[in-house]
Design goal:
The protein folds into 2 domains: 1-18 and 67-110 and 161-241, TPP-binding domain (Rossmann fold, 3-Layer(aba) Sandwich); 28-64 and 113-154, SIR2/SIRT2 'Small Domain', CATH 3.30.1600.10. The chain is elongated. Strand 7 (178-182), helix 8 (193-200) and strand 8 form a beta-alpha-beta unit. It has helices at residues 27-30, 40-45, 47-59, 69-80, 95-98, 127-135, 163-175, 193-200, 227-240; strands spanning 3-8, 84-89, 106-108, 111-118, 124-126, 150-154, 178-182, 204-208, 221-223. Helices cover 34% and strands 18% of the residues. It comes from Streptomyces niveus.
């Protein structure tokens, strides 16, 4: 059974209406100051940053987005392909799972935007509940258990990735026969290094991305076409072979 690992970045979700971050029209290029809203130290120390962050979450297209053809193609490969598929995603939108990928087969390196976590007691609840409180007038809703600061259950700048999740991702990268990096600039570490680790351990490395990446010279195949068009064709080819 062939193990196919898919590392997905923001580019896979742009067709769902969620803008990327580092592409030509990405959020960080359009508004460099927006990075502060997802930087841990700034978020924890500045109530105004937190209020702006909650407004950003309230208005985010993430929670209105639906899986697109690329997400569905990944889920179809897992369901119908007769092989083992694992998704390692840099995204926090949960669209792989909503497209039909079993949650146990999706590693969310940067956490999830669909939950919130208390920075004091660690209590977790849904983002929908927190945003309902924002809509009701709480500009910076505290934890309902202990009163400490709430944050999105995502990995902010300045926070470490969950070592258990990262360890599982490393194991998959070393074990897979095919590693497909799709919609990611492969610039954010340590996620980006997974592509090189897979190649070093003998995997066929395929990169599907509009822009060049630092790992293009290690790839067996590079696809620059639109992800919504290219990925379903690519995965169908792997299915048939």
């Amino acid at each position: 059974m062939t193990l196919v690992a898919i590392l997905s970045g923001a580019g896979i979700s742009t067709d769902s209406g969620i803008p990327d971050y580092r592409g030509p029209g990405g959020l960080w290029r359009r508004d460099p100051g927006a990075e502060k809203l997802v930087t841990y130290d700034a978020y924890m120390s500045d109530p105004d940053i937190r209020r702006r962050s909650w407004r950003m979450r309230r208005d985010s297209p993430t929670f209105r987005a639906e899986p697109n053809v690329a997400h569905r193609a990944v889920a179809e490969l897992d369901r119908d392909g007769g092989g083992a598929v694992r998704v390692i995603t840099q995204n926090v939108d949960g669209l792989h799972q909503r497209a039909g990928m079993p949650a146990r087969k999706v590693l969310e390196l940067h956490g999830t935007a669909r939950e919130v976590v208390c920075t004091g007691c660690g209590a977790r609840s849904t983002m929908a509940e927190a945003l309902a409180r924002v809509e009701a007038g709480e500009e910076d809703p505290p934890c309902t258990v202990c009163g400490a600061i709430l944050k999105s259950a995502t990995v902010m700048f300045g926070e470490r990735l969950d070592p258990e999740v990262l360890g599982q991702a490393l194991t998959i990268a070393k074990a897979c026969e095919v590693f497909i990096a799709v919609g990611t600039t492969l610039q954010v570490q340590p996620a980006a290094s997974l592509a090189a680790i897979a190649a070093e351990h003998g995997a066929r490395l395929v990169i599907v991305n509009a822009e060049p990446t630092p790992y293009d010279d290690q790839a067996d195949e590079i696809i620059r076409e639109r992800i919504g068009t290219a990925l379903p064709v690519l995965l169908k080819r792997f299915h048939e072979s």
